[in-house]
Write a structure and sequence with these properties.
Elements: H1 3-22, H2 24-37, H3 54-75
Helix pairs in contact: 1-2, 2-3
Length: about 90
């Protein structure tokens, strides 16, 4: 797959995220994921004894990362993949 095809594929994926999570049902699901996986809370939450469990923090961080990825995809502009242009390369002299 060349650079243009990769860019078109990436744009189709962004458009799909926006269609799915931009719908009323998608917004409901995304809000549920935010609540369940606490994207607004730190990954390190103290245990009742005051210590931290690094394995649990890693699991929480992984869960949060999925929601953050969806939110990032939603922040990208939707456009037709036919509008994807040849990547510009810079010539360094």
């Amino acid at each position: 797959m060349d650079a243009i095809e990769r860019a078109k594929h990436a744009q189709r994926v962004v458009n799909a995220y926006r269609r799915v999570f931009g719908s009323e049902e998608g917004k409901l699901v995304l809000e549920d994921l935010r609540g369940k996986f606490g994207t607004d809370k730190p990954a390190f939450i103290p245990k009742p004894d005051g210590g931290f469990d690094p394995l649990w923090a890693a699991v929480r961080d992984g869960q949060r990362q999925v929601v953050i990825h969806v939110e990032h995809q939603m922040s990208l502009p939707a456009q037709g993949d036919g509008n994807v242009e040849e990547p510009q390369t810079k010539v360094i002299k």
